[in-house]
Design brief:
A hairpin with a 2-residue loop joins strand 2 (about 40-45) and strand 3 (about 45-50). This protein starts with 10 loop residues before the first strand and ends in a 5-residue tail after the last helix. It is of the alpha+beta class and about 450 residues long. Helix content is about 25%, strand content about 30%. Helix 3 (about 180-195) packs across helix 9 (about 425-440) and helix 4 crosses helix 9 (about 425-440). It is globular, with a radius of gyration of 21 Å. It folds into two domains: about 10-150, no CATH class; about 170-230 and about 250-440, Anthranilate synthase (4-Layer Sandwich), CATH 3.60.120.10. The strands form two sheets. Strands 1, 2, 3, 5, 8, 9, 10, 11, 12, 13, 19, 22 and 23 form a 13-stranded mixed β-sheet that branches. Strands 4, 6, 7, 14, 15, 16, 17, 18, 20 and 21 form a ten-stranded antiparallel β-sheet that branches. Bound molecules: ligand ISC. The ligand C=C(O[C@H]1C=CC=C(C(=O)O)[C@@H]1O)C(=O)O binds near residues 245, 260, 262, 415 and 417.
Length: about 450
């Protein structure tokens, strides 16, 4: 849908969230405001929730980012925005999820919700958005929120699904490839690297979790928020997860990324400390190589958009409940091109896919992924996040996540960076460590 002559413009109204106007609903924390189909982008009590859908872009192919950007520009043209707060995430806003591959049939989407609740720096706001000519007000925004919450009274969407902490009867089976077949693919990847022409390829696999009772999307998101607080918990339609990796965040003139590559399973070393992880990961030439490829691919693509680009010479150890990662935070001051800063979505287009999820060189790795994985990644490892009318946005890489395919089955994805020194058995174990967040959220892992 595009704003054309004769169609009402996008209208938005942002107002402070008045907890008293919520009719006694306990809005203490964002997790309390999750509703069954809510869009979600939350971390450490900050972020955005979205409810309802009033307009959407869908697209596939190599132009999916550019087409989405054009659609968003069209929606903003003539938009009537009332936004006294004017911080990233207020005013016009869309949530999005993009397919990993330009050849994927999976639809990439940008969706404008009817209502947004935002949390930042201790304040909370509501934005009511319309495209039907109606004029949003502070009252209409609060009434909408009351309505969405009434349909989701803090329980697992009436589906009788799993509640946090409750073990559920579920089984897990291999997806496109069995474990043996996937290890063969990894071995082929190692051989391809040895033959030359590429240095790194990230190979992923899928598993399917099946249940005899419907799963609860709200419970999954709540559990991820509870356990993986350091990650960005995302939910865009059926895609849910908690990613530790940020492809790009734009806040005014500053862009930031968190690049990860290099992994150590914490279950293998229950008593291990960050210092222990630093010595194992930092001391491994294989892990450092994997990481350096990922940092280099991100910084090389970001540099043309920046007047200043900085990242530490040495990665730090990111400690998550399931794994330790080698991590590098990259910061850039964005360059102004003829009075315009690049939007977060324009940067996503330039940066995706990095060597953290594809490989080096990108083209060769991409081709090998298509041959060896025997599956379509869909939205896995694609950009997921949001953008606003000023170009700000936060886009994670959709890792540690899953697609809710129907009420009873969930497809989980995980991958591992393969370099010449990779061992298929160890890479398989690493994928299980990366499945763990979703398995825990589904009640399938102790
Ligand atoms: C491909 C995934 O992780 C990437 C991000 C962090 C560490 C990675 C690694 O050590 O291989 C991967 O590059 C995944 O979680 O599915």
């Amino acid at each position: 849908m595009t704003a054309t002559l004769g169609t009402p413009p996008l209208r938005t109204l942002t107002t402070a969230l008045d907890a008293a106007a919520l009719g006694g609903h306990p809005a203490a924390a964002p997790a309390d405001l999750l509703a069954p189909d809510a869009f979600c982008w939350l971390r450490r009590g900050e972020g955005l929730l979205g409810y309802g859908e009033i307009a959407q872009f869908t697209g596939t192919g190599p132009e999916r980012f550019a087409d989405a950007e054009q659609w968003w520009k069209d929606m903003l043209a003539g938009a009537l925005v009332r936004d006294p707060l004017r911080v990233p995430g207020t005013g016009a806003l869309a949530f999005g999820s993009f397919a990993f591959s330009k050849t994927s049939p999976h639809a990439s989407v940008l969706v404008i919700p009817e209502l947004v609740v935002g949390f930042r720096d201790g304040t909370a706001w509501l934005t009511h958005l319309t495209v039907d000519g109606s004029v949003p007000t502070a009252e209409s925004a609060h009434a909408l929120l009351r309505g969405f919450l009434a349909a989701a009274p803090g329980c697992p969407e009436g589906l009788g699904g799993t509640t946090p902490g409750t073990p559920s009867a579920g089984t897990v089976r291999s997806g496109a490839l069995t474990e043996e077949q996937w290890k063969e693919s990894v071995a082929e990847g190692v051989l391809a690297i040895g033959r030359g022409g590429l240095d790194k390829v990230v190979l992923a696999r899928d598993v399917v979790a099946s249940f005899d009772k419907p799963v609860s999307r709200v419970s999954i998101l709540q559990r991820l928020l509870e356990i993986y607080g350091e990650c960005w918990t995302y939910g865009v339609r059926g895609l849910v997860g908690a990613t530790p990796e940020i492809l790009i965040k734009v806040d005014g003139t500053t862009a930031q990324a968190r690049v990860l590559a290099g992994t150590l399973d914490r279950e293998d070393e229950p008593a291990g400390s960050v210092g222990f992880a630093a010595s194992v990961l930092g001391g491994s030439a294989k892990q450092r190589q994997e990481h350096d490829f990922a940092v280099r691919s991100l910084t090389r693509q970001l540099a043309p958009f920046a007047t200043d680009l900085s990242f530490p010479a040495e990665p730090f150890i990111l400690e998550l409940p399931n794994v330790w990662h080698l991590a590098s935070d990259v910061t850039a001051e964005l360059a102004d091109f003829e009075g315009h800063l690049p939007t977060s979505l324009a940067l996503v287009e330039a940066l995706h896919p990095t060597a953290a999820v594809c490989g080096t060189p990108r083209e060769e790795a991409g081709k090998l992924i298509l041959t060896l994985e025997k599956m379509d990644r869909g939205p896995y490892a694609g950009p997921v996040g949001w953008l606003d009318g000023a170009g700000n946005g936060e886009w994670g890489i959709a890792l540690r996540g899953a697609v809710l395919e129907d009420p009873f089955s969930v497809r989980l994805y995980a991958g591992a960076g393969i370099v010449e020194a990779s061992d298929p058995e160890a890479e398989l174990a690493e994928t299980w460590a990366k499945f763990r967040p979703m398995l825990q959220a589904l009640g399938l892992h102790a």
